[in-house]
Amino acid sequence: MRSCQTAVSQASGKKITTIEGLDPKGEHPLQRAWIAEQVPQCGYCSPARSCKLPLCWPRIPIPPKPELVSHMDGNLCRCMTYVRIQRAIMRAAADMRGV
What SS3 class is residue 73? Predict the structure, then answer.
């Protein structure tokens, strides 16, 4: 869920996980992929991309590129690093699947 479009009252009583919360030591595949692919963390689009995606992966083995691009629609990146983000997502998905 996008924090910029969510009222605080909607989060009341809910668990909130940030990318840092995936693994406190930074060992989650998504955290490692973000670093390896040098995805900037300006904070504008990263929270929605990084935290929404792990919830999608159990349903799909490794996201096909058209599905990944479709998933990224509507979440604009001010840094213009869509290609790095896509590579990081594919890297993390492969890592999570043991590929």
Answer: coil
* Distance in angstroms (rounded) separating the CA atoms of residues 62 and 41: 23
Please give the C-alpha separations between residue 43 and each of 37, 50, 54, 77, 99, in angstroms, as whole numbers: 16, 11, 18, 9, 29
Q: Are 11 and 34 in contact (CB under 8 A)?
A: no
Give the residue from 99, 96, 97, 83 showing the smallest Cα distance to 30: 96
One digit per residue, the tens of pLDDT, for the chain of length 99 reads 666 677 889 888 988 777 788 888 999 888 899 899 998 776 666 666 665 665 555 556 677 788 777 777 777 777 777 888 888 888 888 888 776
- Report the alpha-carbon distance of residue 16 to residue 72 in Å, rounded: 21
Here the tokens at position 80 are: 């213009």
**What distance in Å separates the CA atoms of residue 93 and residue 12, rounded to the nearest whole number?**
30
Could you tell me how many residues make up the chain?
99
